[in-house]
């Protein structure tokens, strides 16, 4: 080694120990990628999570996705089609200007306007036909038909200052328009690398512990774990299942977990008479599509040993699922139980349905989307084989999987669904309701399951403003769909975070990593 | 020389055109990016709107014509995911990758050539054998594994260097560079070394082979007979001759390091172009994929040109006008 190089290394090492961060700084290692700081540009979990630091919403969701007041102190339905929001007084934007009703109006006007948006937030505002400003701190939102989910949807998007009603996405990325009411201010956005935030001292709510927050994008999970172990970051999300046990034992690390709002399930072609990937065992086409028969679907569900998948494939980081959302979420059924593993019963049902000798099936699965997606499908395939369904697995990258599934090229496929709204109408409407572009129902219903009874119950629920009555209808719809085996639920993921010892994180069902939830032990 | 350059330029245009066409059709065949970009909660109407907003409702040939029209004016389109011109996006990331590539090439030259010369000069010595054995490791160990090991040893256990990401940057001529800060160098060292490992092994082997071959040549004997010092024979006459293959390979390798530093960039979360292209492919972000590949192809064409010119400088027997491609 040359003297020069040696000197340089030495300088590097001494400088590193001197340059450690101060106590009030927090660095987060994030598994996802952030495409923009414009809170209305791209409706995707990682973007929403980061913009939540900078921007407030009318309504917020707590760690369990229950609605809590944010910029609106209270809300109520005045009549069936009018919701009134009372805005919080004395709230300041980062530039010192006051927040009031005009900012809400400006936001509602910007949301559907954003050019080139690949996924618009207008899905949260489309129901509003009129916005009435009663006074500076009271806003009424009118809809054409009763709309019970209004407060839930108001938790879906950020409120911006009215001066940026027509600001392009670039202005938010550069920081010029990234002026919100949230606990943190924009400091820097280096795309693909990091986001830096500074505490906003004029924040109306509780003061966050951190003066400076750096959110680093570390998409490779091994590197993310290494960054935590080396102390470069104080918290990471999406802890890989394989490392979980080891990190749990590590004295320098704390882990926190909570069941997520994401269900992993199998969706089936229950609609067509001939489905492309189901044949007789010799490869000849079958007379009819066995997946249309509820007995076959039930048998397949019974053939799956869910505890084994949770235990072996997910290494304990999941909970066997009986429905669309874990217990405790709004609209979940209290009576549905996880389907018991019963291979003999399943074989009997298959014989009853006329498939004593089974058939051949190919399950399609993404291999880069959900935690252990390909392994789960492999395990399911083996379990199906035991009841006489000769099963093959084709696992492909999500980039090819998803477009092909949308074109209905598959017979059975693995999907995951996280309910952003934190209640059951989200999965029911998106992938159980009959596909109907006019009503906006079933956009993700790629098996084209259709059950008029479920549609009816869901339709009623979506018109019922009274919470108790609506919950009952949603529970009925859930039970009807699950007993008809509309999908085969497998498990709910568990969301994991790992922090350095001395830090804790309040785990969230919606997978978000928020600096405000990180606390230093004192 | 001029004829040579013009011919090269025309070839370049054809290659770029064919390239863009292939990528366009290829990405189109894979699927519709909307399925990946859009929120799963979006309904069918919102889906239609997003497809129109990104111009994906047009037939393929029309999309390609629109692209060509704009490309001629220097606009390679906007990224679907970032809403930023694809070219700007790549240029934003380029300094990071260039830093990494140049540092890696620097390390492999500074370390590789002296080691290779020694191994060629004293092939039977213990040091010579050790160097050769080491170079085999450099070839055969997978980059991602070495990268993780480097992180485990230097960042996690010893705590000397940061594990991931890029350090502080300063803005120079509008480019964000990290090589002018100490923190930047700390972050650069591990990924650069990781990336350099393979090239280093290559340089060692090439230099050693050249060294052994040349030492037996007549001109070395003449030089010695003339009474030149060993130092002058090796460092002036032999070195100049063994540099020709080394320069060719390094030229090509520089291109590949810039274009395909993907693995290292992913492991070290280095915000360079390699990471951008991987993310873009996963999201079917066609404008970025097309722009990236066009830039990469241009870069290879340019590097090849420079290598050819360097040849004629290093070896006066080579004449540019005789080169066909």
Automatic annotation (TrEMBL), chain A:
Where does the record place it?
Periplasm
Which CDD domains does the UniProt record give?
PBP2_NikA_DppA_OppA_like_2
Q: Which UniProt keywords apply?
A: Signal, Transport
What is the protein name given in its UniProt record? Peptide/nickel transport system substrate-binding protein
The species is Stella humosa
Q: Which family does it belong to?
A: Belongs to the bacterial solute-binding protein 5 family.
The residues covered by the Solute-binding protein family domain are 66-432
Q: Where is the signal peptide?
A: 1-23
Domain of life from the UniProt record: Bacteria
Q: Name a biological process GO annotation.
A: peptide transport
Claim: Manganese is one of the keywords in the record: no
| A GO MF term | peptide transmembrane transporter activity
GO annotation, cellular component aspect: ATP-binding cassette (ABC) transporter complex; outer membrane-bounded periplasmic space
Q: Which InterPro entries match?
A: Peptide/Ni-bd, SBP_5, SBP_5_CS, SBP_5_dom
TrEMBL record, chain B:
Where does the protein principally reside?
membrane
Coiled-coil regions listed in the entry: none
- Cite the entry's keywords alphabetically: Cell membrane, Membrane, Transmembrane, Transmembrane helix, Transport
Q: Which residues cross the membrane?
A: 12-31, 100-121, 133-160, 188-207, 242-263, 289-314
Annotated membrane topology is: Multi-pass membrane protein
Q: Where in the cell is it found?
A: Cell membrane
- Pfam families linked to this entry: BPD_transp_1, BPD_transp_1_N
| A single BP term in Gene Ontology | transmembrane transport
Q: Where is the ABC transmembrane type-1 domain?
A: 94-311
- Where is it found, in Gene Ontology cellular component terms? plasma membrane
Q: Which InterPro entries match?
A: BPD_transp_1_N, MetI-like, MetI-like_sf
User: Looking at the keywords, is rRNA-binding present?
Assistant: no
UniProt family annotation? Belongs to the binding-protein-dependent transport system permease family.
Q: What is this protein called?
A: Peptide/nickel transport system permease protein
